[in-house]
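Could someone model FE2/S2 (inorganic) cluster with this protein?
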Amino acid sequence: MSESPAIRIRFSGLGEFDAALGDSILDVALRNGVALDHACGGVCACSTCHVRVLAGAEALSAATEAEEDQLDRARDVGLDSRLGCQAKLVRVPRDGVLAVRIPVWNVNLVREAH
Ligand code: FES
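Reply:
Sure, complex below.
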């Protein structure tokens, strides 16, 4: 039996959690109580799950055209931007850790909703 390699996703300022190949960033956030918005339910029809990838991007599935189109509408976008529901772990990141940051305006949006 082969053991699956250890992978962690670090959400800046929010914590670091176990992940597995095939998980999306949103999957890991939701499993661990990280408040990553996902207005469309994870079907690539909004951009509220936007994250910036700080390290380990090589471990993620390539962005599709549909994802790029949604990101065009997001705020605070950069070359390291991904949709949390579309970016899936397809290999083990260097160091075993994928590091992401939820853009500040997104975090504020979640906080203001309380
Ligand atoms: S949750 Fe809507 S695009 Fe990711």
